[in-house]
Amino acid sequence: SLFLPAVTWKRLVASTKKRSGGGKKRDDPGDPLDPPALQLSHDNHVKKSLSCANLSSYERVVVQASTGELLRCLGEFLCARCHRLPRLSPGEPALWLRAVDRALLLQGWQDQAFVTPANVVFVYMLCRQVVRGDRVASERELRATLLTCLYLSYAYMGNEISYPLKPFLVEEPTAGREAFWDRCLAVAEAT
């Protein structure tokens, strides 16, 4: 549980399984076309570099991650950070984000999904600064904060000039607007 907050997204480390087949194997490890620092590992198909030379043999640096993997990591980060919410599962934050994305797609506010790896990382960077586990008292409060970070991500990285507020609100639309904008200001001040 303490492992995930220590991991940065630049150097996300995960266990690997051996892949079968895949590519041309070289018999001569001393081939001058493969310098040792950049040799392709035939076990896990990840280019080794000088920066990851100190990693254990069973770990690898993730070069690419799918949206689902990053959403799972975001959920695990939030579960670890929000220790006062023992019933929170790592999949719930992903469902909240995907529900908003789906609603905006169905309403015609966007032509393609916004929840992509780059945008999930951006949401994570906002959450890392804003979500304080000792202050989050309920899943509803965490959801409100996460959706506020998502709204700001849409505003900053989205393709549209503006987005409707309703899919991002946890509270009633009329009463929740002021609380939502207060959270937006709090995120801006925290980052």
UniProtKB/TrEMBL annotation:
Region (Disordered), start-end ranges: 16-40
Alphabetical list of InterPro entries matching this protein: CDK5_activator, Cyclin-like_sf
Gene Ontology MF terms: cyclin-dependent protein serine/threonine kinase activator activity; protein kinase binding
A Pfam family per the record: CDK5_activator
GO cellular component, one term: growth cone
GO biological process: one example: brain development
Family: Belongs to the cyclin-dependent kinase 5 activator family.
Protein name: Uncharacterized protein
Organism of origin: Muraenolepis orangiensis
